Amino acid sequence: MKRKTIRRGVTYFLLALFSFVMAYPIVWWFFASFKHTYDLADRSLWPKEWTLENYREGWTMGGLTFTTFYKNTIFITLMNVIGTIITAGLVAYGFGRLNFKGKNIWFAILMITMMLPSQVTVISQYIMYNKLNLTDTYVPLILPHWCGGGAFFVFLLVQFVRGVPRDLDEAAKIDGCGRWRIYWRILFPIMKPAFVTAGIYSFIWSWDDFYSQMLYINSSSKFTVSLGLRMFIDQADIKWGPLLAMSLLSVIPSLVIFFINQKEFVEGVATTGLKG
Amino acid sequence: MSSQNQHKGLTKVQKKRKAYENWGGYAYIAPWLIGFFLLSAWPMIYSFYLSFTDYSMLKSPNWIGIRNYRNIFTTDLNFKKSLGITFRFVFIAVPAKLIFALFIANLLSKDVKGMSLYRTLVYLPSLIGGSVAVSMVWKNIFGLDGYVNTLLGVFGIAPVPWLVSTQFSLYTLILMNVWQFGSSMIIFLAGLKQIPRDLYEAAKVDGAGSVRCFFHITLPQLSPVIFFNLINSLINAFQQFNSAYLVSSGGPAHSTYLYALMLYEKAYISYKMGYASGLAWILLVIIGIFTAINFIGSKYWVHYDD
Amino acid sequence: MAKKLFAVILAALMVLSLAACNSSTGKPEETEAQTTEAAKEEKTEAAKEDTTEAAKDDTTAAPKDGVIELTFDWWGNDARHEATLKAIDLFNETHDNIHVTCEYMAWDGFWDKMPVLSASNALPDVLQMDSAYIHTYVDNGVLADITDKIDLTDIMTQDQIDIYKIDNVLYGAPVGTNGCGFTYVKSTLDKYGIPYPTPGWTWDEFTAWAKDAASKLPDGVWVMGDPRGNAYESMQNYVESKYNVKILGFDGSFNFDAEQCKEFFNYWQDMADAGVVPPAQQNMSMTDGDATSDGWINGSLLLRSSNIGNVNMEIDLFPEEVRTDIGVCSQPVGDYGAQWYQSTMFYCVAENSPNKEAAVELIKWIVSDIEAGKILQTVRGMPVSNEVYEAIEPDLTVSQRVAKELQDVVAPYATAYWNNTPNDYADWVNEFKANGEAIMLGEMTVDEVAEHLAVSGQQIYDDLH
């Protein structure tokens, strides 16, 4: 009994310590966003003088407001997340469960695409989109996510699928289920934690993705939050106050999505019913 | 019956089934396949071609043969240095990150009150990874008279030049990278949740302690996920750009001049896109070699249920 | 249970996305033809709704036929974006036959994007350009020759215009004069009993003053930041001022002299030993313009090397009372002047623009129109045109007036025109900077560095010829 409480205590202590270490920079960031820019050099955590000016000033940017930017970013991100979950699942099922000629070669190619630095493929992609008159639209940003969502997610889901024992599949096959049924009725529900994970990542990375957004979006009315934030920085003049404030706000949606969906993990997974 | 088949090759039925399976497989991976041809295959071929040209993006490319590659390995002032720095970065950051991630995921998978809160707090750094504000925060905390040094001062340790000395700068970046272990941790968590409880219960009945359980049940069961995280972290670490670009600008004195930063500067500051393409393909080969080593090695320690 | 929750979330997300879809102007599912029509309609509707939006990149009325469409790209900060958008609105209103659409971004984004645009022949008609990049773009033939297309003689003398020609061709109209001098807070110098610097001071006078000032400063305060932290540019300024040398000539010549290099580094080492500049680690911890670590703003440094173009933004980091207390001075003067004084920003026309005449008209208007000048103020440095300057002078803020004072004190001691780095040597310059830091940190000796740079630079030269 005593052993258990000591162990509990140690666990709590470690968790608290880690949480503090991890969270401190962000705590600093939070308080800094309420300081005047000229007070930022101050070493103390607590603002000498609390001010909301960073938030007020930061919200408008070059004639537009962050409201527009948020709307745009939410749209793009949601389209990406949905596309990823749908298509990465299908592709992972194909690679992870089905057998077909050339599967290993294609999988190896999938791995290779994960490794190529993006800066290099970007020029050709841009030229292609430009020829199709798709620049200054959201197509270049969303399309990749409807083509399997990217090698990362496919790989992630493939690993999960391969970790799921085939017993249920076999059982279903005997019952006369075809490939689709097996996927939709059996594997899809089991892979839910993986989908939630993929969804969260997809959301956060889409939300934060700066480079493609900058490259393809021209009209300021189509700007996203990342682009808006980047505008606070220019050569020698960095508007630290509004930058800190608006960056903080921009992190909140990701945080909320994560906080809500982590419960999915807590619920546990159907695998415990597998062996029974 | 089966011996007959061996002599005569596949029967019609078997051929039909094979065709059916092939068709099915391709149907399911179709979204990826289409995307691959459109968005990866063509750009990859084109970038390979560009690596043999003097392309500056502003003018059409001219073929120059292997001159770029020759220069990279002989006259480039920073190639070898950058590669060395990147290797050091990868081989320290990746194991550190995975170990922390697994350790914390393990802690979090137990029933502790306020779990959601802890999980979110620990994941926080990964959320803000790419943002510019992070560089300012990091510079502030690891500045000469920043928070970390003040804290060390409480223990009587002299201020450490985290970002302003060539000895420490890379380790500060590594620390920053490891600080963002949240992504790997989440994946470990998901994997941990998938391990059937019965295995642990059976082991406990046999009298196994928690350490035994960890090494003989958790690790093997988790091995596909560990493998996934390993490959992924490896690939990402080799391509690490943000911290070098935002926090240290590759310095001081090029001590944090990571490969991806060097590539970026060659492409967008020196406008040597052909040369940069060559660098990119070299990186790809390096990453490919390490990934292949890991895939081959995986046969020995990764344990799939299927 | 979990399944249901998941489905609900998914459904909610889809509904949200549809809602967001209707209000945003991006509709990727539509075909190209539909997009332009729908986008035009949406723009007019959005514009009608939102009357408070001062700066939009598209006008409130759809462009009519026979109107020339121009794109105009620039980089900058928020203030510059807002002012420029307003100015362009004015242009569009007053010019029936030309309609300008704008794209604007931050410095990094701009230089990442321009080459990509160039590669797909999609450069904007008019682009802002920096002296650091203009030669590269000219060498690659992507900027148009505007020598005979634009007439700037009503705002500048022909001599002044000729300075900006490359191989006798004018590729860009200069925007905003810029130059480098010193700024300081008067009361801080008073506090330490240090006399104010005198504009036009020679190198010897400067050295003496600096060492004397250093002796009067307490621990933790130094005279100025160490120029060796930006070694190439600092050495270039040094040898230009003393010996009229351009280390990297625009004709591709390599004029790096190892002895001059040693002289430069040894001079500053001597200054460092006298306490004029901070020790390497402290120096590197100070970032100009960063509110949390700017040494000048937080009182660790007396002098700041300031550019006319952005001194007003630097001063704005001080609380109000301090902004009226700023003194200005020139950089030390050698036989050939102090430091550079010229325009470093330009407006250029893309070679593949189908509307060069209209583009030039836009450029001329921006740099010379009085009303435009009143809107743009000093977001791109001091106006090139005297007329425009006089029109905005009464409304200048305290910080902007400092910029004018700085300009007055720097102009008389200008060195010859300063070029940017030829592209082929970009890596060498990068290496120069890293080596400078290595010297400061004591990891390489001055002799080693001078030798290394001489050899590697010569190699590049040999490879090119």
Task: Provide a descriptive summary of the structure in words.
The complex is a heterotrimer of chains A (276), B (306) and C (465). With 276 residues, chain A is an all-alpha fold. Chain A has a single domain, classed as Orthogonal Bundle (MetI-like fold), CATH 1.10.3720. Chain A is 69% helix and 3% strand. In chain A, the strands form two sheets. A two-stranded antiparallel sheet of chain A has the order 1-2. Chain A has a two-stranded antiparallel sheet with strand order 3-4. In chain A, strand 3 (233-234) and strand 4 (237-238) form a beta hairpin. Chain A is flat, with a radius of gyration of 23 Å. Chain B has 306 residues and is an all-alpha fold. Chain B folds into two domains: 2-50, no CATH class; 70-301, MetI-like (MetI-like fold, Orthogonal Bundle), CATH 1.10.3720.10. The longest helix of chain B has 39 residues, at 12-50. In chain B, helix 2 (12-50) runs antiparallel to helix 14 (273-301), helix 4 packs across helix 9 (182-194) and helix 9 (182-194) packs across helix 11. Chain B is flat. Helices cover 73% and strands 0% of the residues of chain B. Chain B is built from 14 helices and no strands. Chain C has helices at 2-23, 32-49, 78-94, 107-119, 134-139, 158-163, 186-192, 203-216, 231-243, 258-273, 280-285, 311-315, 320-323, 356-368, 370-376, 386-392, 398-410, 426-440, 446-464, and strands at residues 68-75, 98-105, 126-130, 172-185, 303-307, 326-330, 341-349. Chain C is built from 19 helices and seven strands. In chain C, strands 1, 2, 3, 4, 5, 6 and 7 form a seven-stranded mixed β-sheet that branches. Chain C is an alpha/beta fold. Chain C folds into two domains: 52-177 and 344-399, Periplasmic binding protein-like II (D-Maltodextrin-Binding Protein, domain 2, 3-Layer(aba) Sandwich); 179-342 and 420-464, Periplasmic binding protein-like II (D-Maltodextrin-Binding Protein, domain 2). The interface between A and B is large, with 95 and 96 residues.
